[in-house]
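Protein modeling request. Please complete all fields; requests missing the sequence field cannot be processed.
Requester role: graduate student
Desired output: 3D structure, token encoding
Chains: 1
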Amino acid sequence: MFNETISTAASVINVTTHYVTDDLYPRGFAIIDAPLKTPEMLWMLVPIIASVILMEFYFGRYKEEELGWNTAFGNSLVLTFVSIDLFRHTYEPTGMTILESLQGPDGKITIAMMLFGFAILLVLMDYFHFLPKKLAYAISSSSFVHMIALLGIVIVYSDNIPLEWTTLLACFLLFLFANFILHIIYWIVPSYRPPLHRIINVDRLERLTSKNRDD
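Delivered output (215 residues):
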């Protein structure tokens, strides 16, 4: 029994290792390398990448600021516009209808439809304030929305990235890694304190120190 368990565990580890090295890692690298092989997508990727990085620098510097319903609403609109461009890219050059594109071999228009549906849902939730504020701000944040848009653009614009479970898993892992990097940027950016705020704090500290000495 023990030997069978060891053999099964070794087999699972071996299969997993082969899957990661032979399928998952190459697929993740293909996603990262896709903009170099399909420069057309850079017109969409560069502004989004710049936006998400600059937003992390902004909120890293002003850590006390909240996202705001208006900013969350704007982020959801960005995802809507991106998904519309993906619609254009998938079926316009072929001359096929949306239904014919859905029945096509790659099914990448499905990604555009899923992103569009998710974007419309975000727009409605942010516009009508359906969700609690913290939850709505989390799923409508710049890092979350723009990373989904980036991955959607890469998959739809690329000709050599099939729509399958390995691709989805690779996208998920890249999404986690990119958000980890963005969180590092957020925390290493020094917070801003206005001069008046520092003066008030120094004056308050001096008063407290003087009071403690008198006591």
